[in-house]
Write a structure and sequence with these properties.
Layout: E1 3-6, E2 9-12, E3 17-23, E4 33-38, E5 45-50, E6 56-58, E7 66-71, E8 76-81, E9 90-96, E10 105-110
């Protein structure tokens, strides 16, 4: 399984950014998909998760601002990030629930 993430960019505080992640693997629709992030000096943290039946979970720090979604036909998962804050600056990773990871994509939020 290969995961390809995109959406890297620089955005001003208060702005929005959308991350995408596509999978080359099979059985995509049966897997939960996750977005993690890691910023310098901090541990990688789970940002959002969407289950195979579309149940969503969010870290408290992003609840109400970020939205995870998936399109099984396209084998893709998305992270819509609104009301961005400088502390959201991080490398974002998509991952499958069974342990496959994409390359990171950097999101920088300027104040």
């Amino acid at each position: 399984v290969q995961l390809q993430a995109s959406g890297e960019g620089l955005v001003q505080a208060g702005g929005s950014q959308r991350l995408s992640c596509t999978s080359s693997g099979g059985a995509f629709s049966f897997k939960a998909m996750e977005w993690y992030r890691q910023s310098p000096g901090r541990q990688r943290e789970l940002v959002a998760r969407i289950s195979a039946n579309f149940y969503e979970n969010y870290a408290d720090s992003v609840k109400g601002r970020f939205t995870i979604s998936r399109d099984n036909a396209k084998k893709a998962v998305y992270l819509q990030m609104d009301s961005l804050k400088p502390e959201d600056t991080a490398v974002y990773y998509c991952a499958t629930s069974d342990g496959f990871w994409g390359q990171g994509t950097l999101v920088t939020v300027s104040s």
